[in-house]
Amino acid sequence: MTSxxxxxxxxxxxxxxxxxxxxxxxxxxxxxxxSIAVHARSEQAxxxxxxxxxxxxxxxxxxxxxxxxxxxxxxxxxxxxxxxxRLDGVVANVGGAxxxxxxxxxxxxxxxxxxxxxxxxxxxARAAYPLLKESRGALxxxxxxxxxxxxxxxxxxxxxxxxxxHLTASLAAEWGPEVRVxxxxxxxxxxEGSFKAVFQSREELVERAGRTTAVGRIGEPRDIALACxxxxxxxxxxxxxxxxxxxxxxxxxxxxRILKALED
Length: 264
Fold this sequence. Notes:
The chain has helices at 20-31, 43-55, 70-84, 107-135, 155-175, 192-197, 203-210, 221-232, 254-263, and strands spanning 11-14, 35-40, 60-64, 89-92, 138-142, 180-186, 243-246. By secondary structure, the protein is an alpha/beta fold.
Protein backbone atom coordinates (compact mmCIF):
# COMPACT_ATOMS: atom_id res chain seq x y z
CA MET A 1 0.00 0.00 0.00
CA THR A 2 1.36 3.41 -0.97
CA SER A 3 2.04 5.76 1.92
CA UNK A 4 0.00 8.99 1.90
CA UNK A 5 3.32 10.77 2.51
CA UNK A 6 4.72 9.43 -0.77
CA UNK A 7 5.88 12.10 -3.22
CA UNK A 8 7.43 9.84 -5.84
CA UNK A 9 6.59 10.87 -9.37
CA UNK A 10 5.64 14.42 -8.39
CA UNK A 11 7.31 17.36 -10.13
CA UNK A 12 8.34 19.98 -7.58
CA UNK A 13 10.04 23.37 -7.87
CA UNK A 14 12.16 24.54 -4.95
CA UNK A 15 13.25 28.15 -5.26
CA UNK A 16 16.50 29.27 -3.72
CA UNK A 17 17.78 25.69 -3.78
CA UNK A 18 21.46 26.14 -4.60
CA UNK A 19 22.42 26.07 -0.90
CA UNK A 20 21.17 26.09 2.67
CA UNK A 21 17.63 25.09 3.58
CA UNK A 22 16.48 25.17 -0.04
CA UNK A 23 19.12 22.72 -1.13
CA UNK A 24 18.29 20.45 1.80
CA UNK A 25 14.63 20.47 0.77
CA UNK A 26 15.47 19.72 -2.88
CA UNK A 27 17.80 16.84 -2.01
CA UNK A 28 15.31 15.31 0.41
CA UNK A 29 12.42 15.48 -2.03
CA UNK A 30 14.59 14.03 -4.79
CA UNK A 31 15.57 11.15 -2.49
CA UNK A 32 11.84 10.53 -2.05
CA UNK A 33 11.41 10.00 -5.78
CA UNK A 34 10.27 13.44 -6.90
CA SER A 35 11.45 15.17 -10.05
CA ILE A 36 13.00 18.44 -8.99
CA ALA A 37 13.36 21.86 -10.57
CA VAL A 38 16.14 23.64 -8.70
CA HIS A 39 16.48 27.39 -8.86
CA ALA A 40 19.00 30.16 -8.32
CA ARG A 41 19.76 33.54 -9.83
CA SER A 42 22.65 32.18 -11.92
CA GLU A 43 23.51 28.95 -13.68
CA GLN A 44 26.89 28.87 -11.96
CA ALA A 45 25.21 28.78 -8.54
CA UNK A 46 23.28 25.67 -9.59
CA UNK A 47 26.23 23.59 -10.73
CA UNK A 48 26.91 21.89 -7.40
CA UNK A 49 23.33 21.01 -6.48
CA UNK A 50 22.61 19.83 -10.03
CA UNK A 51 25.59 17.48 -9.84
CA UNK A 52 24.47 16.17 -6.46
CA UNK A 53 20.94 15.41 -7.66
CA UNK A 54 22.18 13.84 -10.87
CA UNK A 55 24.39 11.61 -8.73
CA UNK A 56 21.19 10.50 -6.97
CA UNK A 57 19.83 9.71 -10.45
CA UNK A 58 16.99 12.12 -9.79
CA UNK A 59 15.21 13.79 -12.72
CA UNK A 60 16.33 17.40 -12.34
CA UNK A 61 16.08 20.69 -14.20
CA UNK A 62 17.89 23.90 -13.32
CA UNK A 63 16.14 27.23 -13.83
CA UNK A 64 17.39 30.75 -13.18
CA UNK A 65 15.46 33.87 -12.26
CA UNK A 66 15.46 36.82 -9.93
CA UNK A 67 12.20 36.10 -8.09
CA UNK A 68 11.57 39.85 -7.81
CA UNK A 69 11.28 40.02 -11.61
CA UNK A 70 7.89 38.73 -12.75
CA UNK A 71 9.02 38.16 -16.34
CA UNK A 72 12.03 36.10 -15.29
CA UNK A 73 9.90 34.00 -12.94
CA UNK A 74 7.28 33.42 -15.65
CA UNK A 75 10.01 32.29 -18.06
CA UNK A 76 11.39 29.85 -15.48
CA UNK A 77 7.95 28.34 -14.86
CA UNK A 78 7.40 28.07 -18.59
CA UNK A 79 10.64 26.11 -18.91
CA UNK A 80 9.53 23.74 -16.16
CA UNK A 81 6.18 23.16 -17.82
CA UNK A 82 7.85 22.48 -21.16
CA UNK A 83 10.49 20.14 -19.73
CA UNK A 84 8.38 18.06 -17.34
CA UNK A 85 4.93 18.60 -18.82
CA ARG A 86 3.45 19.32 -15.42
CA LEU A 87 4.07 20.81 -12.00
CA ASP A 88 2.68 19.26 -8.82
CA GLY A 89 4.28 21.33 -6.09
CA VAL A 90 6.25 24.45 -5.32
CA VAL A 91 8.34 25.39 -2.30
CA ALA A 92 8.88 29.15 -2.40
CA ASN A 93 12.01 29.27 -0.27
CA VAL A 94 13.86 32.40 -1.42
CA GLY A 95 14.45 34.90 1.36
CA GLY A 96 17.03 36.73 3.39
CA ALA A 97 17.50 39.12 6.28
CA UNK A 98 19.46 42.35 6.51
CA UNK A 99 20.52 43.66 9.91
CA UNK A 100 19.88 47.29 10.80
CA UNK A 101 18.11 49.51 13.35
CA UNK A 102 14.73 50.71 12.11
CA UNK A 103 15.37 54.32 13.14
CA UNK A 104 18.24 54.70 10.69
CA UNK A 105 17.28 52.21 7.98
CA UNK A 106 16.73 53.73 4.56
CA UNK A 107 13.27 53.24 3.13
CA UNK A 108 14.72 51.77 -0.06
CA UNK A 109 16.60 49.11 1.92
CA UNK A 110 13.36 48.27 3.75
CA UNK A 111 11.58 48.00 0.40
CA UNK A 112 14.24 45.63 -0.99
CA UNK A 113 13.69 43.30 1.96
CA UNK A 114 9.94 43.25 1.31
CA UNK A 115 10.56 42.57 -2.37
CA UNK A 116 12.91 39.67 -1.70
CA UNK A 117 10.88 37.96 1.02
CA UNK A 118 7.29 38.81 0.11
CA UNK A 119 6.99 40.05 -3.47
CA UNK A 120 9.26 37.23 -4.65
CA UNK A 121 7.06 34.65 -2.97
CA UNK A 122 3.95 36.12 -4.59
CA UNK A 123 5.60 36.33 -8.02
CA UNK A 124 6.54 32.65 -7.75
CA ALA A 125 3.08 31.65 -6.60
CA ARG A 126 1.31 33.62 -9.31
CA ALA A 127 3.51 32.24 -12.10
CA ALA A 128 3.08 28.67 -10.82
CA TYR A 129 -0.68 28.91 -10.33
CA PRO A 130 -1.83 27.76 -13.82
CA LEU A 131 0.32 24.62 -13.67
CA LEU A 132 -0.62 23.88 -10.06
CA LYS A 133 -4.30 24.40 -10.83
CA GLU A 134 -4.08 21.94 -13.70
CA SER A 135 -2.47 19.27 -11.51
CA ARG A 136 -4.48 20.16 -8.36
CA GLY A 137 -1.13 20.66 -6.72
CA ALA A 138 0.25 22.27 -3.59
CA LEU A 139 2.19 25.43 -2.81
CA UNK A 140 4.37 25.82 0.28
CA UNK A 141 5.64 29.26 1.26
CA UNK A 142 8.58 29.52 3.66
CA UNK A 143 8.25 32.09 6.42
CA UNK A 144 10.05 32.16 9.79
CA UNK A 145 9.25 32.29 13.48
CA UNK A 146 9.29 36.05 12.90
CA UNK A 147 5.65 35.52 11.87
CA UNK A 148 4.55 35.72 15.51
CA UNK A 149 7.56 37.31 17.23
CA UNK A 150 9.14 40.77 17.21
CA UNK A 151 12.40 41.02 15.29
CA UNK A 152 14.43 43.96 16.63
CA UNK A 153 17.14 45.03 14.16
CA UNK A 154 15.38 42.95 11.47
CA UNK A 155 12.08 44.83 11.21
CA UNK A 156 11.71 44.54 7.44
CA UNK A 157 12.42 40.81 7.45
CA UNK A 158 9.92 40.18 10.25
CA UNK A 159 7.25 42.29 8.58
CA UNK A 160 7.73 40.45 5.29
CA UNK A 161 7.53 37.02 6.90
CA UNK A 162 4.41 37.96 8.85
CA UNK A 163 2.87 39.13 5.58
CA UNK A 164 3.88 35.82 3.99
CA UNK A 165 1.74 34.01 6.55
CA HIS A 166 -1.20 36.26 5.73
CA LEU A 167 -0.62 35.74 2.01
CA THR A 168 -0.74 31.99 2.62
CA ALA A 169 -4.23 32.20 4.10
CA SER A 170 -5.48 34.53 1.38
CA LEU A 171 -4.18 32.38 -1.48
CA ALA A 172 -5.53 29.21 0.11
CA ALA A 173 -8.99 30.76 0.34
CA GLU A 174 -8.87 32.14 -3.20
CA TRP A 175 -7.24 29.21 -5.00
CA GLY A 176 -8.91 26.27 -3.32
CA PRO A 177 -10.01 23.63 -3.91
CA GLU A 178 -7.73 23.25 -6.93
CA VAL A 179 -4.54 24.39 -5.18
CA ARG A 180 -3.66 23.88 -1.53
CA VAL A 181 -1.49 26.63 -0.05
CA UNK A 182 0.40 26.30 3.23
CA UNK A 183 3.39 27.82 4.98
CA UNK A 184 6.33 26.43 6.95
CA UNK A 185 7.76 28.67 9.65
CA UNK A 186 11.28 27.48 10.55
CA UNK A 187 13.19 28.33 13.67
CA UNK A 188 16.97 28.54 13.70
CA UNK A 189 18.41 25.99 11.28
CA UNK A 190 22.01 24.93 10.95
CA UNK A 191 23.37 25.53 7.47
CA GLU A 192 26.85 26.31 6.23
CA GLY A 193 25.90 29.97 6.22
CA SER A 194 24.35 30.10 9.71
CA PHE A 195 27.21 28.06 11.18
CA LYS A 196 29.65 30.75 10.06
CA ALA A 197 27.56 33.89 10.49
CA VAL A 198 25.49 33.06 13.58
CA PHE A 199 27.62 30.51 15.42
CA GLN A 200 31.06 31.85 14.43
CA SER A 201 31.98 28.30 13.31
CA ARG A 202 31.90 27.18 16.97
CA GLU A 203 30.19 23.91 17.87
CA GLU A 204 29.78 24.98 21.51
CA LEU A 205 27.57 27.86 20.39
CA VAL A 206 25.43 25.44 18.39
CA GLU A 207 24.98 23.32 21.52
CA ARG A 208 24.12 26.35 23.64
CA ALA A 209 21.52 27.45 21.12
CA GLY A 210 20.07 23.94 21.09
CA ARG A 211 19.41 24.14 24.82
CA THR A 212 16.94 26.97 24.16
CA THR A 213 14.56 24.56 22.39
CA ALA A 214 12.26 22.01 23.96
CA VAL A 215 13.79 19.20 21.89
CA GLY A 216 17.32 20.17 22.90
CA ARG A 217 18.85 21.02 19.51
CA ILE A 218 18.59 23.50 16.67
CA GLY A 219 17.08 22.55 13.34
CA GLU A 220 18.61 20.86 10.34
CA PRO A 221 17.52 21.40 6.72
CA ARG A 222 15.99 17.92 6.76
CA ASP A 223 13.56 19.01 9.50
CA ILE A 224 12.18 21.68 7.19
CA ALA A 225 12.25 19.29 4.23
CA LEU A 226 10.12 16.75 6.11
CA ALA A 227 7.54 19.42 6.89
CA CYS A 228 7.46 20.42 3.22
CA UNK A 229 7.10 16.78 2.16
CA UNK A 230 4.07 16.43 4.41
CA UNK A 231 2.38 19.55 3.05
CA UNK A 232 3.13 18.55 -0.56
CA UNK A 233 1.84 15.00 -0.08
CA UNK A 234 -1.63 13.49 -0.01
CA UNK A 235 -1.27 13.16 3.76
CA UNK A 236 -2.06 16.89 3.93
CA UNK A 237 -5.02 16.75 1.54
CA UNK A 238 -7.27 18.32 4.23
CA UNK A 239 -4.71 21.00 5.19
CA UNK A 240 -4.71 24.42 3.54
CA UNK A 241 -4.15 27.97 4.72
CA UNK A 242 -2.10 26.94 7.73
CA UNK A 243 1.29 27.92 9.11
CA UNK A 244 3.31 24.97 10.39
CA UNK A 245 5.92 26.08 12.91
CA UNK A 246 9.06 23.93 12.91
CA UNK A 247 11.32 25.40 15.59
CA UNK A 248 11.91 22.72 18.21
CA UNK A 249 9.47 24.31 20.62
CA UNK A 250 10.16 27.05 23.19
CA UNK A 251 11.67 26.41 26.59
CA UNK A 252 10.56 29.72 28.08
CA UNK A 253 7.29 31.60 27.90
CA UNK A 254 6.91 35.37 28.40
CA UNK A 255 6.53 35.05 32.17
CA UNK A 256 9.61 32.86 32.46
CA ARG A 257 11.68 35.35 30.48
CA ILE A 258 10.62 38.15 32.82
CA LEU A 259 11.41 36.08 35.90
CA LYS A 260 14.87 35.24 34.55
CA ALA A 261 15.52 38.92 33.92
CA LEU A 262 14.59 39.68 37.52
CA GLU A 263 17.00 36.99 38.72
CA ASP A 264 19.83 38.57 36.75
